[in-house]
User: Which sequence fits this backbone?
């Protein structure tokens, strides 16, 4: 694996999280493949979804956009590259803040992400997002409150 591939893969995934936290919804689709496996079943249940970049952006902007603030941190990056396929596995810590009359305004949770990426003429594109929740603290109910907004 070349160091440039490693750097580019980490940078693409970091930019995705940065776009979410800064609500730069215009930048997000450019980091994603045409189709994205979207797997958050470890926290929401159900089955993984197969979404377009536009659908991922719409889904996230509708939910995340409701929060007063979010912060998604990635660390302990493990990168593998096999030809035009790359994988980044990383630990995460994510905080969500939403003022509400029902308890703490904050929920923080931890776990691991696995991102699958494809090398394209425009650089690495994320086409798989698998979040594995580990544990959390605070008021998880703010997710439900945000979804109802």
Assistant:
């Amino acid at each position: 694996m070349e160091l440039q591939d490693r750097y580019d893969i980490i940078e693409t995934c970091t930019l995705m999280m940065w776009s979410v936290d800064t609500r730069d919804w215009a930048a997000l689709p450019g980091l994603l493949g045409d189709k994205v496996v979207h797997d958050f079943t470890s926290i929401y249940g159900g089955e993984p979804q197969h979404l377009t970049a536009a659908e991922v952006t719409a889904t996230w902007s509708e939910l995340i956009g409701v929060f007063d603030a979010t912060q998604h941190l990635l660390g302990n990056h493990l990168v593998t590259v096999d030809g035009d396929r790359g994988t980044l596995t990383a630990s995460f810590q994510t905080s969500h803040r939403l003022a509400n009359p029902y308890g703490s305004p904050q929920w923080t949770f931890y776990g691991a992400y696995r991102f699958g990426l494809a090398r394209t003429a425009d650089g690495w594109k994320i086409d798989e997002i698998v979040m594995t929740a580990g544990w959390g603290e605070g008021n998880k109910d703010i997710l439900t409150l945000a979804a109802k907004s």
The first strand starts at residue 32 and ends at 39. The chain has a mean pLDDT of 95. DSSP finds four helices and six strands in the chain. The longest helix spans residues 3-21.
